[in-house]
Write a structure and sequence with these properties.
Layout: E1 15-23, E2 26-33, H1 34-40
Antiparallel strand pairs: 1-2
Region (Disordered): 18-41
């Protein structure tokens, strides 16, 4: 993935992790745009 900013952060640039979600039976990071995450807080 081209826009990864840090190996420890599973999300793309300008996205942040907000918990986990289930996808295809596996737990994966729930990455949302930073502006949308700020509205949820």
């Amino acid at each position: 993935m081209a826009d990864k900013k840090d190996d420890k952060d599973p999300c793309w640039k300008n996205y942040e992790q907000v918990g986990m979600k289930t996808k295809s039976g596996k737990k994966v990071p729930n990455c949302v745009p930073k502006k949308a995450a700020a509205k949820k807080k």
